[in-house]
């Protein structure tokens, strides 16, 4: 080991310890005095008016913590509230304290993330034995800041990032209209346009921050390798998605070569 590494090692060990303590402290934070975890909107309430009533949380923080609610709360029975603003940072992740009646599945639906990614972010939590009062990490990643869009205007997710009988389904299976135009989630450069075993016609777009978006089971390709996409330009049309035996595409998001849950990054869809 070099003299430099010997000198630097204690510093790096200290940083690892500090990072671990910081992560644990976020999960072990006590409940603020007088905290109420839910707000039940009254007729005429909006996200903005509720934020004004609460005073301790901004409208944007309330929206991030209830990502599937819209400004008009007409059909919203209750809003979940963060214990403090630091539990819902713009860049994520969020933090949540388990309440009576919660399940990981319900929380994944509320925060519009995949159940698998929620479980991966909290490996010490037993899904069938949740402890009321424990805190969870909600692995949302800069959902409001990256500017990503869904590949289609009316996303119909039929299989999400999840465990399946053949292993991990690493993306989203989206049902679409026949031959519907498919758009890139963000500006980028086309790094692949052609046939790929198992996904037929495929488009791969490279974006900032080491991310790539993949569009499989296309019917027709509208771009070529090397094309730069700066606007709302379709990359392909939807083909036949064999996983659901209907028109659709397979969509995957990769970060530094690793598949990540697209729902942790894409805008949350409103409740049906």
In short:
By secondary structure, the chain is of the alpha+beta class.
Q: In words, what does this structure look like?
A:
There is one protein chain. This protein is α+β, with helices and mostly antiparallel strands and 272 residues long. The protein is built from five helices and 16 strands. It has two domains: 8-138, LysM domain (Membrane-bound Lytic Murein Transglycosylase D, Chain A, Roll); 156-264, Glucose Permease (Domain IIA). Helix content is 20%, strand content 28%. The strands form four sheets. Strands 5, 8, 9, 10, 11, 12, 13, 14, 15 and 16 form a ten-stranded antiparallel sheet that branches. Strands 1-2 form a two-stranded antiparallel ribbon. The chain starts with a helix and ends in a 12-residue tail after the last strand. Mean pLDDT is 88; it is low at 1-22.
